[in-house]
Amino acid sequence: MSNDKLLALTNNPFLSQVYMHIRSLKPIQYAALKRRKAPAWMYPFKTEMMLKNFIGGILNDWVRITEVSILPNIEKWLNENKTRFDAWEDEKDNAEKEMDSLQDYWFKGVGYTILVNKLRQLFWDVQTFNEKEFVKVINHISGVTPNIFENFLPAMEKRWINDNVSLIRNISDDYRKKISMVISNGVSNDKNMVGIRKEIESLNTEIQGSRAKLVARDQVGKINGQMQKRKQENIGISWYTWETSIDERVVGNPNGLYPIGNKKHGDHWALEGKICDWADDTIYADTIQDAMKGDWKKRTTQMPKTIPGVEIQCRCFATPIMLDMLEGLAA
Ligand SMILES: [Zn+2]
């Protein structure tokens, strides 16, 4: 073994442990270990659902103000506006004030602590789930249980909580602006009650359903994908196999629901089974042998330039490459 290869091993306590372990195996045992197919790295759907419900619940408070202080008044405003142009302004101001105090509650006051604590709890739910998958997969492919030293978690936690708080804030700001616009436009253009109510109801449905769902999916997917990467890198894994769920919902599957990738969601099908490098999201290799020879290819414009699990609705995961890498080091 060359010196720098030896160094790569001794510098990494877990890899040296695996190395010692596989050297203790009989050839037939080693062959059996190598034939093992890694189990899928699962996704924390339950936590995603909890985050969705939590965000939906907060946003619901804004909807309630609209329903209590705005909707019942619109007809009156429409009538009054026929005689007095700004009749609705005062009452609309009251609703705005209620929304201001709600904003203060969630983003400055007591609610902020509740918000942050809940997000923290959900972050650690994802982490606990991800940790189990990590130990399960690594144990399965190497025969050794990985040691855990995850010093990256506190910074990741802080960033994730901050991101989520601003996302929720943005959605509520956006909702307020839109509601206010629907009313101003509706009242000053003398639209009818049914039309205004319909526009508001569709905003309410959007904020309670799809927006919360989108944020939850995006945020849990991102953090789960990043944890997967950092955990693997931490124990010395540099390469992984990109794995899709191989069904009709994988983007790029020519026989599936979304045969063509786009900017928001690349062609993940094209990376199925390909070898990828954690350090460089712009390349891939067709086989482990190619990667060992340094025969990497540039990802095409259709392929994702990111890690598995991060693009919206992505259900892909990364199966770590370990034994081939150790063989490479030992060669
Ligand atoms: Zn994917």
Shape: elongated
Q: Output the helix-strand order.
A: HHHHHHHHHEEEHEEH
The set of bound ligands, ions and cofactors reads: zinc ion
Oligomeric state of the chains? single chain
Biggest β-sheet strands, sense, barrel: 5 strands, antiparallel
Beta content comes to 5-15%
Order of neighbouring strands in the sheet with most strands? 4-3-2-1-5
Concise structural overview:
The chain is an alpha+beta fold and 331 residues long.
Overview of the molecule:
- With 331 residues, the protein is α+β, with helices and mostly antiparallel strands.
- It folds into 2 domains: 1-35 and 236-331, no CATH class; 43-235, no CATH class.
- It has 11 helices and 5 strands.
- The protein has a 5-stranded antiparallel beta sheet with strand order 4-3-2-1-5.
- Strand 2 and strand 3 (280-285) form a beta hairpin.
- The longest helix is centred in the first third of the chain and has 36 residues, at 45-80.
- The mean pLDDT is 88.
- Bound molecules: zinc ion (ZN).
Keywords:
331 residues, alpha+beta, five-stranded antiparallel β-sheet, binds zinc ion, single chain, 5 strands
Topology:
Blueprint: H1 3-10, H2 13-23, H3 27-35, H4 45-80, H5 89-107, H6 110-142, H7 153-188, H8 193-208, H9 210-234, E1 239-243, E2 275-277, E3 280-285, H10 288-293, E4 297-298, E5 317-320, H11 323-330
Bound molecules: zinc ion.
